[in-house]
Predict the structure.
Amino acid sequence: MMEDYIATFFSHFGAMAFKKKCDKEGYPAVIMPVPRNLSSSCGTCVKFTGTAEKARNWNSDELEQLAQVLENGTFQVIWHS
């Protein structure tokens, strides 16, 4: 099921690589600052529409966490390294 997610990373390079992978796979994605209520080592995240299971396997070394964007605009962390 396609849903909206926020992926945070340990480095800006990880976020850039993840965004390229989203583009290649056809998932809409944007690079943006990490929302204040999520933490990140680098401050850059990728908001994308896709599936969490597939995304977890794309950047396992650089991916810090995946959070699902809920209907009320809040986030639920679904995976953390």
